[in-house]
Amino acid sequence: MPKERSIFKDSLQEIFLGSISGACGKIVEFPFDTIKVRLQYSQSLPKPLFSSTFDAIQQTYKNEGIRKGFYKGLRVPIMGASMEVSCLFFSYNLAQDLVKLYKGKKLTDDLKVSEKLICGAFSGICTSVILTPFELVKCKYQVENLKNMNNPNFISKTIPQIANQMYKEKGIRGLWRGHLATTLRECGGSMTWFGNYEFVIGYFANGEKDYKPKIHELMIAGACAGIGYHCTLFPADTVKSILQTNDNKDLTFMKVVKQIYRTKGILGFYSGIGVTLFKSIPTSSIMFISYEKAKEFLQD
User: Fold this and answer.
1) Is residue 190 part of a domain?
2) Is residue 203 domain-resident?
3) Per-residue pLDDT tens digits for 12-40
């Protein structure tokens, strides 16, 4: 017989589990994300800094090393990822509970796949509000060395200095630069992320209620979720990265779209997609494994 559920207790649990999951995933993902952001920034310049993904990896390692290059600015993204993923799982599960209550169902009942997709999109919209400032500071920090690599007297700004500069220039709204693109990415991406995961786990469960997936099943489901997330609205992510790394304050969402299409065509929107898909498989797998196993541990 299914256990009675409490929305309040479940919400606290989702926040806690999401924080663990997000932090674990970000540690694995971050070096790949650094290369992706640098490739996206590079292709927005009149003369790109890198000829390929491999070239970006080589130059980053040669000029900055592992810690200062690939892991530059990790602290803020870890906090952001913890908040992002906890918000994702919290809002996704809360949305499902609200739909069940609205339809007069029990909290232990299941929803249709279409209803879960809507809940996934809702979770992405909620999460984008929290995520945008963290993404903005992270992206600016990741490309700061590139903008000043020919200046021998350059002293790298700290993360608080970058955030403070954005606040001074535009006020509190300045910290949400690129929010539209982030919302589009998170809405479509989260819908696919949860949708792919639920579909694959449902396939393995084969109709069994309260099925506990095995490690390899979680890995496969997580990998499919990550690939779906990044393939869905990657062009929005490219626009977001360029908006957040470019110093031109007059740039808007549509101006960036037109600029990319005019200079690089459709392929310009997919700069960095290779390294992004490569990172999404282990990252998303680890996130769902850590989430599900920690959940099992708390419920036992």
Assistant:
1) yes
2) yes
3) 788 888 888 888 888 888 888 888 888 88
CATH assignment at residue 59: 1.50.40.10
Neighbours of 297 (CB within 10 A): 9
Rounded to an integer, what distance in angstroms lies between the CA atom of residue 167 and that of residue 246? 16
Neighbours of 282 (CB within 10 A): 17
End-to-end CA distance of the chain: 15
pLDDT band, very low/low/confident/very high, at 1 (cuts 50, 70, 90):
very low
For residues 124 and 213, what is the distance between their CA atoms, to the nearest angstrom? Answer: 25
Residue 2 lies in a domain: no
Three-point CA angle 31, 162, 263, nearest 5°? 65
Burial group, residue 72, by CB count within 10 angstroms (0-12, 13-18, 19+) = buried
Distance CA 272, CA 43 (A): 10
For the chain, what is the domain count?
1
Q: Identify the domain containing residue 106 by its residue range.
A: 7-149+157-299
Q: What are the pLDDT digits (tens) for 129-138?
A: 988 998 888 8
- Residue type (1 letter), 231: C
Angle at alpha carbon of residue 128, lines to 126 and 132, rounded to 5°? 145
